[in-house]
Amino acid sequence: MPPPREHVLLVEGKDDREVVYQLCNHHKLDNQSLFTVEAKDGYEHLRDDLSVRLRVPALRTIGTIIDADTNLTDRWHSVCAVLKDNGYTGVPAAPAEDGTILAAQGRLPRFGIWVMPDNRLSGMLEDFIQHLVHHGDPLLPRAQTSVDGIPATERRFQEVHRAKALIHTWLAWQQEPGTPLGLAVTRRYLDANHALAQRFLTWLRKLFSTP
Q1: What angle is formed at CA 88 by the lines to CA 84 and CA 93, rounded to 5 degrees?
Q2: DSSP string for 28-55
Q3: CA dist list (Å): 120 to 74, 93, 99
């Protein structure tokens, strides 16, 4: 099997990395033998690194997990511009619902993109996590009421970060308050078998396990 450094997954931050690790562990996907995960400290750093990484001859597969943030279309066009500038053709106009995978093209590696939360809606990792909260959890609507009840003049977070405020409020009320997102999977505060998690893991398997 090729060494993991030939198969790389770029993510925006350490929370993304840990969630990937823990979902892989739960679903018995030996990611360490399939790919290396690198956290890039935000989308702009990831995009800059991607521009360089695509020129590495030894790279065979590269995946990216990016947040849609407030405008999925703009974020999609941004990352696809890097692909086109480096020579990829046939880049789709919109992300595939189950995650996008482009076949290797000449010197260019096989390439995959997952846009958080679900390749369809604007949002981020925390919106993905919100889907994984167990159905009927009584604390989630209470956390929503708590966060939304803060007057606009008193809010210290931007609207784009509402999902972060919500999930971390909800996590503060668990058995181990303040549990990081990755450990929330391990401690089963979240449903790692949710359909969205299954779709995400299927994309990872197809990207890194398929020749």
Answers
A1: 65
A2: T--HHHH-EEEE-SSHHHHHHHHHHHTT
A3: 13, 13, 10
This prediction has a pTM of: 0.94
Burial of 101 (0-12, 13-18, 19+ CB in 10 A): middle
Looking at residue 68, its amino acid is A
Scanning 86-153, the segments in alpha helix (DSSP H) are 125-132, 139-148
Between CA 201 and CA 50, with CA 19 as vertex, the angle to 5 degrees is 80
CB 110, CB 137: distance < 8 Å: no
How far, in Å, CA of 208 to CA of 57, rounded? 18
pLDDT in tens, 110-124: 999 999 999 999 999
Average pLDDT score over residue span 188-207: 97
Neighbours of 114 (CB within 10 A): 27
CB atoms within 10 A of CB 187: 13
Kindly list the distances between the CA atom of residue 64 and the CA atoms of 16, 156, 206, in Å, as whole numbers in the listed order. 11, 30, 14
